[in-house]
Design brief:
This protein has about 180 residues and is mainly β. The chain has two domains: about 5-45, no CATH class; about 50-180, Rieske Iron-sulfur Protein, CATH 2.102.10. Helices cover about 15% and strands about 35% of the residues. It has two helices and 15 strands. The strands form four sheets. The chain has a five-stranded mixed beta sheet with strand order 3-6-7-8-15, with no helix packed on it. The termini are far apart.
């Protein structure tokens, strides 16, 4: 079958001459997107477990907020959840749940989750932290600050006033964890 080159706005495409409906064909970006979705759906349907710790952070909002306490759904799997409005990072990692301040303890820059490295990093001075908030390297001089938290059934209750620094309140910082 002979092909002709068509130059629509999005770029050049090779289209068989017998096809009059070249606009119905997906672009490369659309094809890759559809194929990725189909592959993900096929893996999920086949029962292949995908590592949730490799997922991007999820934006969350509190279920309820009474004064200083804010309740969030208990995470069902490992991952990072961020409440930007209240500047809280909620993490489930290795059967533990932590609530951190969104700000880096060095100069209060919002921390980022680096999916490929499975750690937090400050974009300003590149301080690095493990998922449990432990300092790894960089300009910061301490671990990520943890909020006091407790479990209430299928909810995690975070106290936004009780923020613990590992260098000043070591016992409180270490106990600010829910073990599942």
């Amino acid at each position: 079958m002979k092909a002709r080159i068509v130059r629509p706005e999005s770029g050049m495409r090779h289209v068989p001459e017998s096809c009059d409906c070249f606009d119905a064909q997906p672009t490369r970006r659309e094809f890759i997107g559809r194929t990725s979705c189909a592959l993900f759906a096929a893996l999920a349907a086949s029962g292949v477990a995908l590592d949730a710790a490799h997922a991007h952070p999820v934006a969350i909002r509190p279920i309820s907020g009474q004064g200083t306490d804010h309740s969030y759904p208990l995470p069902s799997e490992d991952g990072v959840n961020i409440d930007q409005d209240n500047e809280v990072i909620l993490v489930r990692s290795a059967n533990h749940i932590y609530a951190f301040a969104l700000a880096c303890p060095h100069e209060n820059t919002a921390l980022r989750w680096r999916q490929q490295d499975q750690r937090f990093q400050c974009p300003r001075h590149e301080s690095k932290y493990q998922p449990d908030g432990t300092f790894l390297s960089g300009r910061a001089t301490r671990n990520m600050d943890r909020f006091a938290l407790r479990r209430d059934g299928q909810k995690v209750v975070v106290n936004l006033v009780k923020l613990y620094r590992s260098d000043q309140q070591k016992a409180e910082w270490e106990s600010a964890v829910i073990t599942l």
